[in-house]
Design brief:
The protein is mainly beta.
Length: about 425
């Protein structure tokens, strides 16, 4: 984004938060949100306190989502709710598609005249709807990267109102989606502008539905159990901008808010997989490439890529007992007498070779294999068919217990590969307060 857009955004956001008093006595360097795994729907959720009086709002996390959207149809009551006008600076930089000049219903949350109007996308059901942009009070926990700190308030955090019907497919009780994508109105950008820290956030998804992972907005440290400072293990690869939108059929006019990286090859047990390299590039229509997703539970691959990976993986595990496949997976083995390692089942490592041949994201057994039933493990990759919008989508299972840092300033992704190697996990962040 141009620096002028950043200045416009910051000036409007400062207007929204001009009544803030808490930050005058305490200015956080970072914020945190807990992340819970929904093991039934394989989604990742968080909770944010919003409105006046404050209400805990459960949200499904979409790491590539443009903004936070919330159901305003049912039960939305708040004295601090404010619509965002069409001619406001925040509306302009949010890439709004239209203006709601006259609301056909009585004024209230989700319906006001002369209000910034957006298309909203639910990636779980691949459905687009429309809604107005608004601002309301939120309360978020601060952090020093080691433990929780004081809660801080933002009197006017921007979000978009959805209809109740758009909640279909979300985790039970979820009231919307927390969008973390490459946008000036996503949560990382809004939090950074409110408290004047850099547009950086780190995400660490727990593999357990019983213990929370964490998202930290702001720079490190990122310290887990046994004082493990894991940021020193980060490797980096550039974030690639897809100039065509990837959030449904109506989004192509604006750049994608998803996080794309440059995958150049795949190796299994050090053996190169023969791929159609052109599929790994993004074409002029925005097709192809590799992105990161929290709404896809498993990594999905274009059919020819998937078949090539499956073939090599099968050859490299030919000493293991193959068993009938279990949907949605196509390659399964018996885990009887297989044993385990610090990083999961002892299967060949899968290297995603990135922009430079010396930079690889290694997927070990804990992230490549899925325990589908007793004594059965399946390779956790899924065939996405021919001509998918994106050739490789790295899904949630492959992200678990890996620390990812999304740096929107330097436009790069930092990644650790499995934290299990460091004898810690994403569930080991200290959520108890240090104050």
């Amino acid at each position: 984004m141009a620096s002028s857009s950043n200045l416009l955004f910051l000036s409007f956001f400062l207007f929204l938060t001009s009544s803030q008093t808490h930050s005058k006595t305490f200015q956080p360097k970072a914020l945190l949100l807990p992340v819970t795994k929904d093991s039934s729907l394989l989604q990742y959720t968080t909770q944010i306190k919003q409105r006046t009086p404050l209400v805990p709002i459960k949200l499904t996390i979409d790491v590539g989502g443009q903004f936070m959207w919330v159901d305003c149809d049912k039960g939305y009551v708040s004295s601090s709710y404010r619509p965002v006008p069409c001619d406001s600076k925040i509306c302009k930089i949010s890439r709004a598609g239209a203006c709601l000049l006259v609301c056909p219903s009585p004024p209230g949350p989700g319906c006001n005249n002369n209000t910034c109007y957006h298309l909203l996308y639910n990636p779980l059901i691949d459905t687009t709807d429309s809604g107005v942009m608004a601002a309301d009070a939120v309360l978020v926990q601060s952090t020093d990267g080691r433990s929780s700190g004081p809660a801080v308030s933002i009197p006017g955090l921007v979000f978009t109102c959805s209809s109740h019907s758009l909640l279909k497919g979300l985790s039970s009780g979820a009231k919307g989606i927390a969008g973390l994508g490459r946008s000036l109105v996503s949560l990382p950008s809004l939090f950074a502008s409110a408290f004047k820290f850099q547009r950086i956030f780190a995400m660490c998804l727990s593999s357990s539905s019983q213990s929370n992972g964490v998202i930290i907005f702001g720079d490190g440290p990122y310290q887990f159990q046994f004082e493990k400072e894991v940021s020193e293990y980060l490797m980096y690869t550039p974030l690639i901008l897809n100039l065509k939108g990837t959030a449904g059929e109506y989004s192509e006019d604006n750049p994608s808010t998803d996080y794309f990286i440059r995958l150049t090859s795949i190796k299994i047990n050090g053996r190169a997989v023969q791929l159609n390299a052109s599929l790994l590039n993004i074409d002029k229509e925005g097709n192809g490439g590799t992105k990161i997703s929290t709404v896809n539970p498993y990594t999905v691959m274009e059919r020819s890529i998937f078949k090539a990976v499956l073939e090599v993986f099968a050859e490299e595990t030919k000493g293991m007992t193959r068993v009938p496949s279990v949907k949605p997976f196509q390659y399964c083995i018996s885990s009887k007498n297989l044993g385990s390692t610090r990083v999961g089942p002892p299967v060949p490592a899968i290297d995603l070779v990135l922009h430079d041949k010396s930079v690889s994201w290694t997927i070990f057994g804990a992230n490549s294999m899925v325990q589908v039933k007793n004594d059965v493990l399946c390779l956790g990759f899924v065939d996405s068919g021919l001509n998918p919008r994106t050739s490789v989508v790295i899904g949630g299972h492959q992200l678990e217990d890996n620390l990812l840092q999304f740096d929107l300033v330097k436009r790069r992704l930092g990644f650790t590969s499995s934290l299990l190697f460091m004898q810690t996990t994403c569930a080991n962040f200290n959520f108890t307060s240090s104050v």
